[in-house]
Design a protein that fits this description.
CATH topology of the largest domain: Glutamine Phosphoribosylpyrophosphate, subunit 1, domain 1
CATH superfamily of the largest domain: Aminohydrolase, N-terminal nucleophile (Ntn) domain
Number of domains: 3
Distance between the termini: 10 Å
Low-confidence stretches: none
Structural class: alpha/beta
Number of strands: 26
Shape: globular
Mean pLDDT: 93
Oligomer: single chain
CATH class of the largest domain: Alpha Beta
Bound molecules: 6-O-phosphono-alpha-D-glucopyranose
Radius of gyration: 26 Å
Length: 620
Amino acid sequence: MCGIVGYIGDQEAYPILIKGLHRLEYRGYDSAGISLINNKGELNVYKAKGKVSALEKSVEGKDISGTIGIAHTRWATHGEPNTTNAHPHFSQSKNLSLVHNGIIENYKPLRTELEKNGMTFCSETDTEVLVQLVEFMMVSHKCDLYNAVQLALKNVVGAYAIAILEKSHPDQIVCARKGSPLIIGVGKDKTSGRPEFYIGSDATPIIEYTNQVIYLNDEEIAIMNRAGLLDITNLSNVKQTPQLVTLQMNLDQLEKGGYPHFMLKEIWEQPDALRTCIRGRIDKAEKDVLLSGIIDHRDKFINCRRIIICACGTSWHSALIGKYFIEEACQIPVEVEYASEFRYRNPVIHPDDIVIAVSQSGETADTLAAIQLAKEKGAFLYGICNVIGSSIPRATHSGTYLHVGPEIGVASTKAFTGQVITLCLLGLAIAKEKKTLSNEMFHMLVDELQQIPDKIQWTLENNKNIDQFAQMFTYCKNFIYLGRGYNYPVALEGALKLKEISYIHAEGYPAAEMKHGPIALIDEEMPVVVIAPKHGMYEKVVSNIQEIKSRKGKIISVITEDDTVVKNMSDYSFVIPDTRDCFVPLLAVIPLQLLSYYVAIAKGRNVDQPRNLAKSVTVE
Ligand code: G6P
């Protein structure tokens, strides 16, 4: 939640910051703001309610010059989304401006204390408390900004990534993090060859200029200046040695590449993204799975008594599919927990439990807190994340990256299929070590898994008319999604996708549970999406369809390509090629992603930035 970008160097900062904000807009779009120091030494702050484009309009005709600046795109927590509550926030003397991502939990007592000391506040935000506290420390301790930040942060409870400008020192930026991500890009000006620094909540605003970055660790404070100085210390003023990392990402991955929306691009990208996800992990010739995260910790996995998977949102749905697969292939009990629930219980965890965090962003606050709790209780932690260098992979003992490329659309698509494939690879790698699958079955599953990207391509090519079909459903107020076994989580995911971007209410249910309640909702107005591949419980799902039809519900089915029986019972069908039962979710979810996309488009929704949502939920 909230995106931060910063720049100091020889170039004009404004275009870099605005472009960076656009790239970070997936993190929140309630308001945006920018702060620049011009060459007269004036510290300007401009803010606007709404998207970055509103900020761009609002600064027309204003002084946006300066080669140093910070900027912010907000997902509101404390205080409604308006211009006053937008970042950056000034300190009382207007000598400092600050942007913040995170939540200062003790902001109320801090504010009261500062008010007692004569400080006044303009906004309702926790962030303004932070900038005032820093200024208070500078004045009361007669210290410089860097030391004042150290002192202030020692008094703060909560999560933060911050960047600060100081009017009286226009040649430096100070930033810090705890619990919210912050990356520093280290570059060289193309013309002058002089050093320049970038700041970003992730690498997306930085990659265009440099691939050399430093991931700031929790409780680290950095100061950077035009002369190329970069100093990092922790809160106790102990100097840290920054580690320069080379980013493996390219700019094309961050553009729409001719598609009208990132979501559609990411849906169509899935075959290639999943080939990359599998690459190097499946030995095609030997039909073998090679996951270094398992090989390096073989004993842990062989002796593990139970696996607990913690996740949120779409990642929770992929975790459910992972549970079914791992239990079946490895004979290890698997529990799937909402991270937000797990972290506030007192869960029973044994040293021979493995806790897996599944998270696209690697930054979800609840998932991070859940694994921190599990670590304290002695569990072995494994991370399955997409964003390289994010907080969860850095907090776990081992893990696997999805390698599906940056996902920008707020509604997750390719990360979901990447997570399912990765969990299946994990299950296969453990099964191989534990010898819980016959060689024949193991090789058959590996062989089938590597064909999935081609089968997704087939599914995309053979369901192209969903756009015309979707128009018919724009009037609907409710949808039901049904699936059984491996396809129950797909029903949940299909319903979530529709809710997220079209704002139509949708419920996912295990098909057999329908008669315990949801069947009462069915009438001629109610579309029911049934995932009904020719597998395991096919006959039973056919009976469920009949029950719906006899109550005049409209059937939209996802069927195996040659299934004329369900096709004839349905008002509309999406086809998928045949595959093993356990891999059907990877195909069945594709038409459901397209359906939600085209219904949302037909309703005129903002598909990539749905209301009230953010891609990376770094607050609880
Ligand atoms: C938000 C996003 C969802 C995502 C969930 C978990 O709600 O909008 O798309 O599934 O967070 O995020 P994570 O990054 O942990 O997978």
